Amino acid sequence: MDVLIICCCLFSIVFADDYFVSNRRFPKNFKFGTASAAYQIEGGWDADGKGENIWDRSTHLYPEKNSYQNGDIACDSYNKWEEDVELLKGMGVNTYRFSIAWSRVLPTGFVNSSNPAGIAYYKNLIAALKANNIEPLVTMHHWDIPTVLEDLGGFTNPEMQEWFVDYARFLFEIYGDDVKEWITFNEPKQTCEHGYGTGALAPNIVSPGIKDYICGHNLIIAHGKAYRMYEQEFKNKQNGRVTMVIDSNWFEPASDIPEDVEAAERNLLFTYGWFGHPVNFGDYPEIMKERIASRSQLEGFESSRLPTFTEEEKQIINGTVDYMCVNIYTSSMASASAEPVIKPLNPDRDSDIGTNVFQPDDWEPTVTSWFKVVPWGSRKLVKWISDTYGHPEIMVTENGYHDNGTVIHDIDTRGRYHKLYLSNLQDALYKDGVNLTGYMAWALTDDFEWQYGYNIQLGFYQVNFTDPERPRRPKDSSEYYRHVVTTGCLVPEEECID
Ligand SMILES: *[C@@H]1O[C@H](CO)[C@@H](O)[C@H](O)[C@H]1NC(C)=O
Ligand SMILES: *[C@@H]1O[C@H](CO)[C@@H](O)[C@H](O)[C@H]1NC(C)=O
Ligand SMILES: *[C@@H]1O[C@H](CO)[C@@H](O)[C@H](O)[C@H]1NC(C)=O
Ligand SMILES: *[C@@H]1O[C@H](CO)[C@@H](O)[C@H](O)[C@H]1NC(C)=O
Ligand SMILES: *[C@@H]1O[C@H](CO)[C@@H](O)[C@H](O)[C@H]1NC(C)=O
Prior knowledge:
Layout: H1 2-10, E1 13-14, E2 20-21, E3 31-35, H2 38-41, H3 54-61, H4 77-91, E4 95-99, H5 102-105, H6 116-131, E5 135-141, H7 147-150, H8 160-175, E6 181-186, H9 188-196, H10 211-233, H11 235-238, E7 241-247, E8 250-253, H12 258-281, H13 286-298, H14 311-317, E9 324-327, E10 331-336, H15 349-353, E11 355-358, E12 364-365, E13 372-373, H16 375-388, E14 393-398, H17 411-430, E15 435-441, E16 461-463, E17 472-474, H18 476-487
Parallel strand pairs: 3-4, 3-15, 4-5, 5-6, 6-7, 7-9, 8-10, 9-14, 14-15
Antiparallel strand pairs: 1-2, 10-11, 12-13, 16-17
């Protein structure tokens, strides 16, 4: 073992600031791709029969919550999808992660009326990807609930479970012969915590510690039911896989005292585990159940603000991811905090966790306050997921770097970010035994970044959002990523070893 480690160090190159960059080659069958979401790139918000979704409504009715910008046109990928496929082909990726806009194929959300133009849009996209040997990795819900369903309560209405299953069946019937990799939900923590808790994201409902948990509950059961339906009705003939994408920071203990170690673990369980535990083990993490129940009691509630799964629901959701996915951007430190004073009738998720979470000032900043560059956190997070969930296959389904979108020469910023994160992820794969099988960089192009509008960007291609043609222009990082995906090497190929 020692010898092996020494070899690795000898063959690694030292990056400018003491980071080692692995010179090993990723496995031949590693899935390299980029990721996107319908609302962020498509535009065509009311084109050809598309229905309104909660992001159309939020950006139109509450522009102040969305940097006074919207995705009405965005990258115009509704019209320019062929050009995007050409860019993907030029980059050499073998996978493309994108989402289907529910309200484009089913304008009201219900399956009783579908939109042929919307159905054709994704049919054509999928066919073009496959013709170029790019595997589609398809997200069914990337935050854009049809407003008809939201007006009925959205994820706070248990009927949403069945509406989602109907939508999923509709997608499997139409696209399932061509799509073998399905993601039900993207980042349910964001959907629920910020859609129904803090209100920062559409549908902008403010109900912290209550509706966020109800949303999570219905979403998890919706996922489980859709998974079972695929298993029963499609798996035999289509033979695809179904999973969920969960996002989390890595939480590093602020010190090695047991209270801080426990504080970091508790954050991971309340963040990744909120969804990861139910779909793997059939229930929420014990610590979530205990803390929310006891705080609810102190606040005067008759029962816990965290809903309870019935035995039947536990069986439905238990073991419903064919592999694990994680979106990684940054990390935080966590330390124990003195138990906060209970404010009656003032529930919220952060108080339920009850720790201090912060990022040290000397961590490398980006343009976004919460986003520090912490490459080593990515290795620790996938290792934690691997250890916690019994060494499953894991895919990183998002990872990318924020800047203000004006920087074309981004090798030392965005290029370096992907290089350092990938190097750490490769260490997880080769040194820690994590079964990491793919990496989807966010993003192919600049796009509409939700509440930030167009003010922050992560693309390998710049898009001029004031030009009606929405031209794409390569940033230097696109060339670096092309090198990585075509050679499997983070360093120049002549320095790379198998
Ligand atoms: C579809 O079903 C919804 C909900 O039951 C109903 O409101 C709507 O009128 C139906 N649409 C059509 C075209 O039948
Ligand atoms: C989930 O399934 C596993 C394996 O069958 C089982 O050990 C576990 O008890 C189940 N969880 C729940 C909450 O029923
Ligand atoms: C990793 O996952 C892949 C895909 O599920 C599987 O084929 C492979 O055997 C796994 N490798 C290890 C070492 O578990
Ligand atoms: C964008 O970021 C770059 C690099 O940090 C900086 O030089 C430039 O002034 C910024 N532009 C705007 C409009 O903030
Ligand atoms: C974007 O497009 C507008 C309109 O065509 C043009 O005036 C502007 O110079 C372009 N900006 C960049 C950075 O190319």
